[in-house]
Write a structure and sequence with these properties.
13 helices; five-stranded parallel beta sheet; Rossmann fold; 241 residues; alpha/beta; 51% helix
Length: 241
């Protein structure tokens, strides 16, 4: 099975280890992974800010970059869902819309791909810690990936999972929302950090770089003793603490 890695901007710059873990996981389960070097930003920041027409250039580049791919897998539910938006973006251009639909149909978030395509729920990983999991908005509400992360984490040897109170609440990042509405965003992420503290977890796990960056930033500013990790790192672990 051939898989193309859609690394995302945040994955490429800030969450390199999550990208490496994603590749190692896929290869462990028999996938041949390639990395289209022409991939760039999927266009989500501009699109969510209302610049629909300006986003088309980025969308066309991404559609072209992954045209050869059998499957496209990303360690980000938010960015994976952006490929679904391309279909409506090109509603007045049947040629590009057809290409967009093909890309959408073969694109998966990592945990979604592991459970739905590879039919794997136990990655054979081991990680000894008490952890809680943050559910990101785009991944759960738009992409519809809700149970896959919990199924996979439940099989990690040594990992004690604690439910995060109000876990479905937004962390306050919301892409450009955190820039346009910083005061509101700050209150939202403070509430998220308070709930994380309530769990007494050592590790906060998530599947979207944007959420992790936002929450981790607030945790560090508040000097809280919680480590933030991408789910790919946990699923690829071999007993680290």
């Amino acid at each position: 099975m051939k898989v193309s890695l859609f690394i995302t901007c945040l994955g490429d710059v800030f969450y390199v280890n999550a990208g490496k873990a994603t590749v190692e996981l896929l290869e462990r389960f028999g996938c041949e992974v390639d990395f289209p070097e022409t991939q760039t930003c999927c266009g989500q920041p501009a699109y969510n800010s209302g610049y629909r027409e300006n986003t088309k250039a980025a969308a066309k580049n991404m559609i072209t970059s992954f045209a050869h791919s059998e499957y496209v897998v990303s360690p980000s539910g938010s960015c994976a869902y952006m490929f679904h938006e391309y279909e409506s973006m090109f509603e007045d251009d049947p040629v590009w819309q057809e290409k967009a639909i093909k890309l959408k149909e073969k694109t998966y978030e990592l945990t979604q791909f592991l459970t739905e395509v590879l039919k794997i729920e136990d990655t054979g990983s081991e990680f000894h810690a008490k952890a809680t999991y943050h559910t990101s908005c785009h991944m759960t509400r738009l992409l519809g990936v809700k149970e896959a992360p919990f199924k996979l984490l439940s099989h990690v040897k040594g990992l004690e999972m604690v439910d995060l109170p109000n876990r479905h609440d937004c962390c306050g990042f919301g892409g450009t929302f955190s820039i346009k509405m910083p005061a509101i965003s700050e209150q939202m992420v403070d509430e998220k950090v308070e709930h994380i503290e309530e769990t007494e977890a050592e590790i906060l796990i998530g599947a979207d770089g944007g959420c992790l960056m936002n929450i981790e930033g607030r945790i560090k500013r508040n000097n809280k003793p919680v480590k933030v990790m991408h789910i790919a790192e946990i699923l690829n672990s071999r007993g680290e603490v």
